[in-house]
Amino acid sequence: MSEKKQYRNWTVQQKLEIVIAGLRGDRSVAEVCREHQISDTLFYSWREKLLEGGAERLAGKEERTELAELRKRVSELERALGRKTYELEIAGKALRGWE
């Protein structure tokens, strides 16, 4: 019988504390990861997300507006793609009905 692996859930505060501990530089990233029993990859992933979020918040209003517009456009394109996919499914069913 296989056992389902249980993953730990980290709160935002815990992630933040771990990443800051690694960024301080008084201990190596490897030491911080061992202490908290996480992989280096997970640490670096959290660090990148923190830095991206910080850069976004520090960006000027114009850059944030451009980002919001791009996200809106992506959302519109995803909806259009969904509609077209649905239309193709319906057309495919109709063609199979003609056979």
Concise account of the structure shown:
The protein is mainly alpha-helical and 99 residues long.
Polypeptide structure, described:
Helix 1 (12-24) packs antiparallel against helix 2 (29-36) and helix 1 (12-24) packs across helix 3 (40-58). The chain contains 4 helices and no strands. The protein is mainly α and 99 residues long. The protein has 2 domains: 8-58; 60-99.
Secondary-structure topology with pairs:
Layout: H1 12-24, H2 29-36, H3 40-58, H4 61-98
Helix pairs in contact: 1-2, 1-3
Poorly predicted ranges: none
Give the biggest sheet: none
H and E order: HHHH
Using only CA atoms, what is the Rg?
23 Å
Q: Can you tell me the number of structural domains? A: 2
- Say how many strands there are: 0
Proportion of residues in β-strands: under 5%
Please give the alpha-carbon distance between the first and last residues.
47 Å
Structural class assignment: mainly alpha
| Helical content band | over 70%
Overall mean confidence score, pLDDT: 89
Keyword list:
99 residues, mainly alpha, 2 domains, 79% helix, flat
